[in-house]
Specification:
The protein has 15 helices and 13 strands. By secondary structure, the chain is an alpha/beta fold.
C-alpha cells in the first residue's frame, strides 16, 4: 500500500511522538509498504512549547521520506497540503492526534484528502481529553474526529473517551515497545557514562517534567526516612516543561539534594539507554495519564516499574509481576519502592517482563491499524 503518516518527525524533537512515528514508518516499510511522513515546518507557536528547542541535532533516520511542510497555524498551508496529499491518492493516511490544538490543522487537511474518495484515514489517538485543559479543546477535538474513518486508542481510558465523542469504529491496541534505542549496557558502563557511582541504588524518573507527571510527589517520597536509610537515589532525566524553580526549592526543603541527580536537558535518543541501564527501577508517579511511552521504553530495557493507578498505566504493568501499582501518594510510592528493593518481592521478574513484551509487537499494532479501516 501507499501510506502517509501525518505527525511529528525529524528534525522535530517531539520526544516519544516523533520517535514513534519514525519507528512506525520503518515497520511499515519492512512490511513492504511505501511510506511518506508529512511533518511540520512549524509545529507549535512559542506559547505552546515550554521547552528550550523544538529541533534535534541528531542525524535523520536512514531510509525514511520526511516532508516537513505542515504549518500548524496557517489555514492556507493546510489547504495546500491537503490538496497535495489528495492528488497522491494514498491508500491510507495514519494521523497521530495528541493535542486538541492540532484539530483544525489536521481536520482541514484530512477533509480535503478524503475528497479523492479513495484514501482511508485512521487516527492514533494519544489523548482526546487532554491532561492540561485549554480553551477550545472540545470544539477542536470534535472537528478533528469528524475527519477520520476510524480510531486506534492506546489505552482503554482513551477508548472510553472516544465513545463519548464519536460513534465511528475504534479499537484498543496497546502502545508497542520502543525497540529503537539500542541495547542496554551494564550498570557500571552506564554509571561511568553519566558520572554516577555504580555501587548505589538508583530509581529513574524519565521524560518531560510537567505537573501531571507528579515528580513533586516522587520528591516527597524521597524524603521518607526509610528511603534515606536504604540509600536509594533518584535519577531525573528529562527537560522541564514546568517552571523549574519550585522543584529545585522542594529538593532543598526536603533536604534530599544528596540523593537527587538531575539531568534536565533534552535527552537525545542515543543517550536514553544509559539512564535506563543505570537504574534498577523506573517510577512513574503520574497524577493523570492515558498511556505512557515511558512504560514501553522500560519494557525494552527490561526494567521493572512502579506506576500509579491512573489512566491506562496499570493496564500494562501487572501488579506484583513486572512492577507495582500504587496510588499517586508519596507514602504509597515510597512503600512500593522499598518493597521492590526487598529480596524476593518480584519473583520470576525477568520471565514476566519477557512475557509482557511479547504483547506489544509492532506487527500486532499495524495489523489493528489496517483491520479497523478494512485494509490488509
Amino acid at each position: 500500500m501507499n501510506i502517509v503518516i501525518l505527525g511529528s518527525a525529524h528534525p522535530l524533537r517531539g520526544g516519544g511522538i516523533s520517535t514513534f512515528n519514525e519507528r512506525l514508518a520503518e515497520v511499515l516499510q519492512e512490511q513492504g509498504h511505501k511510506v511518506i511522513i508529512y511533518s511540520f515546518s512549524l509545529q507549535y507557536p512559542s506559547f505552546l512549547f515550554p521547552g528550550k528547542s523544538q529541533f534535534t541535532d541528531e542525524p535523520a533516520p536512514a531510509g525514511l521520506i520526511i516532508k516537513s511542510v505542515i504549518n500548524s497555524i496557517n489555514p492556507l498551508n493546510w489547504i495546500s497540503v491537503g490538496n497535495n496529499i489528495k492528488k497522491e491518492t494514498p491508500d491510507l493516511v495514519i494521523v497521530r492526534f495528541w493535542l486538541p490544538f492540532m484539530g483544525p490543522c489536521f481536520g482541514t487537511i484530512l477533509r480535503l484528502v478524503r475528497k479523492n474518495r479513495h484514501t482511508k484515514v485512521v487516527a492514533i489517538t494519544d489523548n482526546v481529553i487532554p491532561h492540561e485543559h485549554r480553551p477550545g479543546d472540545l470544539p477542536f477535538t470534535k472537528y478533528f474526529l469528524k475527519s477520520a474513518d476510524a480510531f486506534v486508542a492506546m489505552s482503554k481510558d482513551v477508548l472510553k473517551d472516544l465513545s463519548t465523542l464519536t460513534s465511528k469504529p475504534s479499537v484498543f491496541s496497546p502502545h508497542p515497545v520502543y525497540d529503537n534505542y539500542g541495547p542496554a549496557v551494564s550498570k557500571e558502563e552506564a554509571c561511568k557514562h553519566l558520572g554516577l557511582d555504580s555501587d548505589k541504588k538508583y530509581i529513574l524518573f524519565f521524560g518531560f517534567i510537567r505537573k501531571y507527571k507528579g515528580m513533586d510527589i516522587l520528591l516527597d517520597a524521597m524524603k521518607d526516612e526509610r528511603i534515606r536509610q536504604a540509600g536509594i537515589r533518584l535519577i531525573v532525566a528529562g527537560e522541564f516543561y514546568d517552571e523549574e524553580a519550585p522543584y529545585r526549592q522542594q529538593i532543598v526543603d526536603n533536604d534530599i539534594a544528596g540523593s537527587i541527580h538531575l539531568f534536565t536537558s533534552f535527552i537525545p535518543n542515543n543517550e536514553i539507554r544509559y539512564y535506563f541501564s543505570a537504574a534498577e527501577l523506573v517510577v512513574q508517579p503520574y497524577r493523570s495519564a492515558t498511556q505512557s511511552g515511558i512504560t514501553q521504553v522500560a519494557y525494552h530495557f527490561e526494567k521493572p516499574m512502579v506506576v500509579t493507578n491512573v489512566g491506562g498505566l496499570a493496564e500494562v504493568v501487572p501488579d506484583g509481576k513486572t512492577g507495582f501499582v500504587t496510588a499517586p501518594d508519596p507514602t504509597d510510592i515510597a512503600n512500593a519502592i522499598l518493597k521492590f528493593f526487598t529480596p524476593g518481592s518480584l519473583p520470576d521478574l525477568q520471565q514476566n517482563i519477557a512475557r509482557e513484551k511479547e504483547k506489544y509487537s509492532w506487527d500486532t499494532f499495524t495489523g489493528n491499524l489496517f483491520d479497523i479501516v478494512g485494509l490488509k
